[in-house]
Amino acid sequence: MEIKEFKTEVGGRELVCQFTDLANQTNGSVIVKYGNSMVLATAVMSKSKKEDLDYFPLTVDYEEKFYAAGQILGSRFMKREGRPSDEAILSGRIIDRTIRPLFNQNMRNEVQVVITVLSIENFDPDILGVVASSLALGVSDIPWGGPVSGIRIAKKKGESGFIVNPTYEFVNSEECEMEMVVCGKDEKNLNMIEVGASEIKEGVAYEALAAASDEIKKIQDFQKRVIEDMGKEKLQVQTFKESEELKNLFEVKLEKDLFSKIFVSDLKEGEGEVAVKNNLKNVFDEWKNILEENLPEEVSAGMHYLDEKISVLLHKEGLLNDRRVDGRAMDEIRPLFAKAGGISPILHGSGIFYRGGTHVFSALTLGGPQDAQIIDGMEVQEKKRFMHHYNFPPFSSGETGRMGGTNRRMIGHGALAEKALMPIIPSKEIFPYTIRLVSESMASNGSTSMASVCASSLSLMDGGVPIKSPVVGIAMGLLLNEKNDPSLKSDYKILTDIQGPEDHHGDMDFKVAGTRGGITAIQLDIKLAGVPIKVLEEALTKARIAREEILDVIEAEIKEPRKELSANAPRIVLVSIAPSKIGLVIGGGGKTINEIKEKTETEIEIEDDGSVFITGKNDGPERAKKIIEEMTHEYAEGEILSGEVVKLADFGAFVKLSESADGLVHISEIAPFRVANVSDVLKEGDIVPVKVKGVDERGKISLSIKEADPEYALKKVPADYASKSSDSIGANNRNGAYGQRGGFSRNRNNYGR
Question: pTM for the full model?
Answer without folding.
Answer: 0.84
